[in-house]
Amino acid sequence: MAQSWAFFLLVVLCFCCVSDLICGSNGERVFLYPQSQKVSSIVSQRYRTAYHFQPPKNWINDPNGPMYYNGIYHEFYQYNPNGSVWGNIVWGHSVSTDLINWIPLETAIARDTPSDINGCWTGSATILPGNRLVIIYTGADPEKRQVQNIVVPKNMSDPYLREWTKAGNNPVIQPVGPGLNSGQFRDPTTGWVGPDGLWRIAVGAELNGDSAALLYKSKDFLNWTRVDHPLYSSNSSSMWECPDFFAVLPGNSGGLDLSAAIPNGAKHVLKMSLDSCDKYMIGVYDLKSDSFIPDTVLDDRRLWLRIDYGNFYASKSFFDSKKGRRIIWGWTNETDSSSDDVAKGWAGIHAIPRTIWLDSHGKQLLQWPVEEVESLRGNEINHQGLELKKGGLFEIKGTDSFQADVEIDFELTSIDKADPFDPSWLLDVEKHCREAGASVNAGIGPFGLVVLASDNMEEHTAVHFRVYKSEQKYMILMCSDLRSSSLRPGLYTPAYGGFFEYDLEKEKKISLRTLIDRSAVESFGGSGRVCIMARVYPVAVVDGVAHMYAFNNGSATVRVPQLRAWSMRRAQVNVKGME
Ligand code: DQQ
């Protein structure tokens, strides 16, 4: 065991140098709409996920209009019906009763009117009084201006709501007014009722060169006027995509319906998509000024909180009245090449839907996979009382290592050895994860999980923690390091990372949950404080056997009081013939 770990260290060190050259060290980001790269295509259908959401074929991006309505969950999505790269975008549609198994339906919104002829882009659903349902979405018109359109269900006796009727007065909102960029005006939110009893929505926009969530109001959801000030705007960037606005109660994992009465003590969250990731601010919706007021304004947007520190974008949340929770969905792109995607015939998945709520201090959102995903758990492996000394490596055997759900608690035997925290790391956590890799020893950590590892560890993905001592508190670094995830060159293989504060005096355990689904490695650290979604395309293990290990490369011994792992069954995700 010691020998193989030493080999691992050597290979990691060597390969990291090589992959740094491939990846660059400038915080390169996920390819949102991948450009063709000059790499040959190595395609395996084994990369196709078994329980993450995706249509039978072709390209998908943002989740759209998620909702629970009359006993059915609906998931719409940005979809190219003609291929596996972005383009010709319409709204795909699937329905479910458990958020895990999905039935594919026909296109819900097609590009067939002047106000959406160049694309039916992202939007949201709102349930109006009397259980009336309406969807508002962005259309790209013949001049490629972005306008907002309405659709309503055509046949209310169809439980799946397969067909949708476009409003006669579409577009209901046009990009007019001084300083508004008509090509950067999109992605309307779910509606809520404001202080004057009128409906409100926010639309992502570029206004006078700043990014803004523009505020519109309406009596009937059909006729809209722009409020003279945005819900919120910032000069730290020039456009926000996919704003999401919702209410949360600190320390309460139950969700709130933004159009119902909001209890005292509730906070509001404004999420925005920019810089290839989803960021958010916590604050209040001030009824007097009819605007969002963040608790803290950080000028440097690299320091803004993130929904996920990996490959996760354009997320959208909804209130699930069935279980009284808020659920968030996000899009995860491929990180292979567009020629691979053409060869595979598909591109893009959605992360597992997550319950989202606010921690008891009102400082950050917490997320956890919806409990329904546990219905896929098969045989369970259970270990207790493991001890991982420096260099310790424990192989987790007995599960399907390509389709697994793993939960590990790491318990620190002492916290005295924590190295000092340097706040400048917060400006580029990926850089810090590259420097502080899984094989680089520190006082406490790195310890964590290695997944999809080949026999000799030359190919593996490491998800790990390190503990640092800041002035009053402890800061935990969580990394998901993809630099050795594949021997194949030309992939996007960053070392994702995020920090969270932790009261280590009180809670000596740090938890990690990782969902492995063929080319998806989705991790939740510190009980959902940092989430990291990643895509991997191993070649050495893809048609063989993959190994999974718990490890510790820190000086301080780490205990594992509990380790559980399950093989995950395949879900019925949009299987053809189910409709
Ligand atoms: N995707 C949509 C836009 C949105 C972007 C187009 C975010 O509406 O701004 O497919 O990924």
Automatic annotation (TrEMBL):
<feature type="domain" description="Glycosyl hydrolase family 32 N-terminal">
    <location>
        <begin position="52"/>
        <end position="369"/>
    </location>
</feature>
<dbReference type="InterPro" id="IPR001362">
    <property type="entry name" value="Glyco_hydro_32"/>
</dbReference>
<dbReference type="InterPro" id="IPR023296">
    <property type="entry name" value="Glyco_hydro_beta-prop_sf"/>
</dbReference>
<keyword id="KW-1015">Disulfide bond</keyword>
<dbReference type="InterPro" id="IPR013189">
    <property type="entry name" value="Glyco_hydro_32_C"/>
</dbReference>
<dbReference type="InterPro" id="IPR013148">
    <property type="entry name" value="Glyco_hydro_32_N"/>
</dbReference>
<feature type="signal peptide">
    <location>
        <begin position="1"/>
        <end position="24"/>
    </location>
</feature>
<protein>
    <recommendedName>
        <fullName>fructan beta-(2,1)-fructosidase</fullName>
        <ecNumber>3.2.1.153</ecNumber>
    </recommendedName>
</protein>
<dbReference type="GO" id="GO:0033948">
    <property type="term" value="F:fructan beta-(2,1)-fructosidase activity"/>
</dbReference>
<dbReference type="InterPro" id="IPR018053">
    <property type="entry name" value="Glyco_hydro_32_AS"/>
</dbReference>
<dbReference type="InterPro" id="IPR050551">
    <property type="entry name" value="Fructan_Metab_Enzymes"/>
</dbReference>
<feature type="domain" description="Glycosyl hydrolase family 32 C-terminal">
    <location>
        <begin position="372"/>
        <end position="567"/>
    </location>
</feature>
<keyword id="KW-0325">Glycoprotein</keyword>
<keyword id="KW-0378">Hydrolase</keyword>
<keyword id="KW-0326">Glycosidase</keyword>
<dbReference type="Pfam" id="PF00251">
    <property type="entry name" value="Glyco_hydro_32N"/>
</dbReference>
<dbReference type="GO" id="GO:0005975">
    <property type="term" value="P:carbohydrate metabolic process"/>
</dbReference>
<keyword id="KW-0732">Signal</keyword>
<comment type="similarity">
    <text>Belongs to the glycosyl hydrolase 32 family.</text>
</comment>
<dbReference type="Pfam" id="PF08244">
    <property type="entry name" value="Glyco_hydro_32C"/>
</dbReference>
<dbReference type="InterPro" id="IPR013320">
    <property type="entry name" value="ConA-like_dom_sf"/>
</dbReference>
